[in-house]
Amino acid sequence: MANYTAADIKTLRESTGAGMMDVKKALDEAEGDLAKATEILRVKGLKGVTKREGRSASNGLVRAHVEGGNGTLVEVNCETDFVAKNPKFGELADRMLAQAVAVEAADAEAFLASELDGKTVKEVLDEANAGLGEKIEVRRVARVTGDKVVSYLHKTNPDLPAQIGVVVAFSGDDEQTARDIAMHVAAFSPTVLSREEIDAETVENERRIAEQTAREEGKPEQALPKIVEGRVNGFFKENVLLDQPFAKDAKKSVGAIAEAAGITVTGFARFKVGV
């Protein structure tokens, strides 16, 4: 029988994140040598990385960091909610966020290629993949800059880490209203800040669809311009942050709330895990 104790099992599980049976098998094979058992688990895990590449990593968490006029969001994904709440996964996510902040990453591709402790971030993630036994990836990274930035993280399940993250850049002094707007973004998921960010072709297509739908509904010809305009405005309210009815006062738009508070929203980013 291999010479190892329950404390050795606990130590190896905590250091590698591997399952109980895998740890016991590795210790048996290594005859109780912790360093050798760690290497066995690492090799076994890395062999499984390729097999896991095609699997879906739709669970995970979002981390946010704000410092001065810079805000960073990172979405780190895994396969199951069991791993999502694993402390080792949380530590990895913190490490990924710190790296994204350090290299001022604005997209996942450049972030994954950046160097961390002598390896690329992609290689670090592959090693985590091996240790945790699931596909682990950083799906998205965003960086928002402005005069000031606030962040908001939301838990969709109280037993799991935050799965929705928002950063909002603004100018002005009313930080509380900016935070309220960040909460609004989390709840209503706008896709752009202002109408100007939606290209003319998309707007024209919405206008054509609205007119065709109204005609098929048998609406009177003289009423079509007003109906079409109303439906296009509805499209804007669904997608444009400044046009959306504010979460805390639906009678006013987010733009009107910001103006009344003396702030100007200049940018935002929103991640929801798996979406």
From TrEMBL:
InterPro entries: EF-Ts_dimer_sf, Transl_elong_EFTs/EF1B, Transl_elong_EFTs/EF1B_dimer, Transl_elong_Ts_CS, UBA-like_sf. Its main location: cytoplasm. Keywords: Cytoplasm, Elongation factor, Protein biosynthesis. Residues 71-274 form the Translation elongation factor EFTs/EF1B dimerisation domain. Coiled coil: none annotated. PROSITE patterns: EF_TS_1, EF_TS_2. Gene3D superfamilies: 1.10.286.20, DNA helicase RuvA subunit, C-terminal domain (1.10.8.10), Elongation factor Ts, dimerisation domain (3.30.479.20). It is found in: Cytoplasm. SUPFAM superfamilies: Elongation factor Ts (EF-Ts), dimerisation domain, UBA-like. It holds the Pfam family EF_TS. It comes from the Bacteria. Residues 80-83 are annotated as: Involved in Mg(2+) ion dislocation from EF-Tu. One of its GO terms (cellular component) is cytoplasm. One of its GO terms (molecular function) is translation elongation factor activity. Belongs to the EF-Ts family. Associates with the EF-Tu.GDP complex and induces the exchange of GDP to GTP. It remains bound to the aminoacyl-tRNA.EF-Tu.GTP complex up to the GTP hydrolysis stage on the ribosome. PANTHER family: ELONGATION FACTOR TS, ELONGATION FACTOR TS, MITOCHONDRIAL. This is Elongation factor Ts. The gene is tsf.
